[in-house]
Amino acid sequence: MKKIGFLSFGHWSPNPQSRTQTASDALLQSIDLAVEAERLGMDGAYFRVHHFARQLASPFPLLAAVGAKTRSIEIGTAVIDMRYENPHYMTEDAGAADVIAGGRLQLGISRGSPEQVIEGWRYFGYEPDEGEDDAAMARHRTEVFLELLRGKGFAQPNPQPMFPNPPGLLRLEPYSEGLRERIWWGAATNATSAWAAKLGMNLQSSTLKFDETGEPFHIQQAAQIRAFQAAWKEAGHARTPRISVSRSIFALVDDRDRTYFGRVQEKDQIGFLDGTTRAIFGRGYAAEPDVLIEQLRKDEAIAAADTLLLTVPNQLGVAYNAHVLEAILTTVAPALGWR
Predict the structure, then answer these.
(1) CB of 262 within 8 A of CB of 286?
(2) For residues 253 and 288, what is the distance between their CA atoms, to the nearest angstrom?
(3) Hey, is 195 helix, strand or coil?
(4) Which CATH number does the domain housing residue 235 bear?
(5) d(C-alpha 155, C-alpha 321), whole Å
(6) 3-state class of 77 per DSSP?
(7) What DSSP string describes 234-273?
(8) N or C: which end of the chain has fewer CB within 10 A?
(9) pTM (2 decimals)?
């Protein structure tokens, strides 16, 4: 059995062919798609965060709204760029969204990806500490965030407060018990996956990672998962961690599918991040269900993960994306033992 969710970047564009013309469309359609996904029996609704872009940017209002409109589906991010976040304010926002959702939040966080602007986090008022680069800044803020989520008091109360305080040092409110164990790290390397395991975070691995060995993407991603599992075991954590991978997968069951995705790139691609770092981008899958099933059987990383996030073409509209998700659930997942 495998948990299956969708992952939306929330693109919007005034292009006449887009069914998501505005930021309002992107946000409201994201809520509607989560409702539809829950109706279909999907396990998760996840959203990507990009700043300075015509995409989803501020996740917590959206997560809270989805939490209020749904009852059972997991609600998450993949990922929030920690270079842009104030850990204290984020703790309050995350706690509030999780309380509204009844403890269904699954927060994916990371250093982030190449940006729309140069060092965009500087425009948010953030600077790395002396001796840090932006990646170290993201990891440091993550460690602060994780500690705050434990709910331990740390702030000295006012002896003459406006409202009565509980005894002892104060923590940020609202505190949501269990959220600390529902934090995921989006890792692009084996080393950062091991770092995440040491800190007790779950693992998210997307369709992009650093090309560390020159092997096919799914082979490298499976090795990354093994590195995470080994580090988790070495750290001695009591619980079993969650591991997700993302994929673009389309079952071609009607003429619309064939028109949109009949020519999906079926080979890994090599590129460079920031002009210097060699990265590998995983292939997409698009085929008739029987062919798709055999292709997916050979994906070692999907087999190793407990959660699969299906990236959706959100600008094609809620109804079509619900069709895409339903096709996977009904024509592919049962044959692979995911359902």
Answers:
(1) yes
(2) 6
(3) helix
(4) 3.20.20.30
(5) 46
(6) strand
(7) HHT-SSPPPEEEEE-EEE--SHHHHHHHTT---S-EEEEE
(8) N
(9) 0.97
Helix locations, 83-170, DSSP H: 87-101, 134-148
User: 47 CB contacts (<8 Å, ≥6 apart)?
Assistant: 7, 8, 9, 10, 30, 56, 59, 62, 63, 76, 77, 78
Beta-sheet pairing, 269-273 with 277-281: antiparallel
Determine contact, residues 44/5, Cβ cutoff 8 Å: yes
* Token pair 């085929």: residue: 287
pLDDT of residue 204: 98
Task: Please name which of 83, 77, 76, 137 lies closest in space to residue 115, comparing C-alpha atoms.
Answer: 83
Segments forming the whole domain that contains residue 292:
3-336
pLDDT digits (tens, 9 = 90+) for 59-75: 999 999 999 999 999 99
First-to-last CA distance in the chain? 6
Q: How many domains does the chain have?
A: 1
How far apart CA 264 and CA 22 sit, in angstroms, is 26
Burial 51-86 (b: 16+ CB within 10 A, else e): bebbbbbebbebbbbbbeebeebbbbbbbbbbbbbe
C-beta atoms surrounding 91 within 10 Å = 25
Sign of CA dihedral 84, 102, 25, 47: positive
pLDDT tens digits along 249-293: 999 999 999 999 998 878 999 998 877 889 999 999 999 999 999
